[in-house]
Amino acid sequence: MSKKNREIAFDIVNYTLLTLIAAIMLYPFLNVIAVAFSDYSAYLENPLMIWPRRINLAAFEHVFKDPLILSSYKNTIIITIAGTLISLLLTIMTAYPLSRKDLKGKPILMNIIIFTMLFSGGLIPNYYLIRSLHMIDTLWALILPGALGAYNIILMKNFFESIPDSLEEAAKIDGASDVYILFKIIVPLSTPIIATIALFVAVGYWNSFFSAIVYIRDPGKWTLQLVLREIIMAANTQLLQTGGNYAEMTNIPPQTLKYATLIVAVVPILCVYPFLQKYFVKGIMLGAVKG
């Protein structure tokens, strides 16, 4: 077999495998969409459908009218936006001094930061800390504890170190302060890594539900993921109860409502990702070059 024929055969096998893998990965999404938009009788006839049948939007109407789901959606948006902004600010202000060669005690500080990646304080000490700060049953309990991560600091620090020192030296000659250099020179040049970390942090806040289970008591402050968890747990009993205040659903089957809520929960992240995708690979590669 000639080299050209071997390349053609390789391409055929390669594309066939990639197509098969893509189909396997896409099927669950297509099934969720099909069931959410279909009448429940169609779902009972064919639970494995990939195309909507006898379209019924009752589940989505309920999702957008239910006060508990709407309040959880609002809470999740607030937590995600506030948490991402606070996390980026803290990460930038921590990584910048650590990226300076003349910082005293830099090895010790880096070892402390790396230590937090290997060992955590534990759930019970964290709970007592949050309670002592009077943040139990507040949205701050879901925002502040995870606002600063060691991995993000290291990525940001490495990216800052890849920026030429000559830019900072020229700015200092012109009389620029460290704050001016950071926010007017360094940060604008660091768009790829900032966008990458913003995506990491935002997805983490959006998908987080364990913290809400531990720290939140008021159903009005629940996150979307926690409400979704309640719906999924109740689907097996055909009765939706969240804190005893959720009405029994007789017209909307739990399976359809569960999938409709899943779609509503995923759409915001899917809408944001394409705008940050172009920065993603560049940010990770440049941020991980230096260690």
TrEMBL record:
Membrane topology designation: Multi-pass membrane protein
Signal sequence range: none
Example GO biological process: transmembrane transport
Domain ABC transmembrane type-1: residue ranges: 73-276
UniProt cross-references to Gene3D superfamilies, sorted A to Z: MetI-like
Protein's cellular compartments: Cell membrane
Cross-referenced SUPFAM superfamilies: MetI-like
One cellular-component annotation, GO: plasma membrane
Keywords: Cell membrane, Membrane, Transmembrane, Transmembrane helix, Transport
CDD domains: TM_PBP2 (cd06261)
Keyword Membrane (UniProt): yes
TM regions (residue ranges): 12-37, 77-96, 108-128, 140-160, 181-206, 259-276
PANTHER family assigned: ABC TRANSPORTER PERMEASE PROTEIN MG189-RELATED-RELATED (PTHR43744), POLYGALACTURONAN_RHAMNOGALACTURONAN TRANSPORT SYSTEM PERMEASE PROTEIN YTCP (PTHR43744:SF9)
Family recorded in the similarity comment: Belongs to the binding-protein-dependent transport system permease family.
Protein known as: Binding-protein-dependent transport systems inner membrane component
Organism: Mahella australiensis (strain DSM 15567 / CIP 107919 / 50-1 BON)
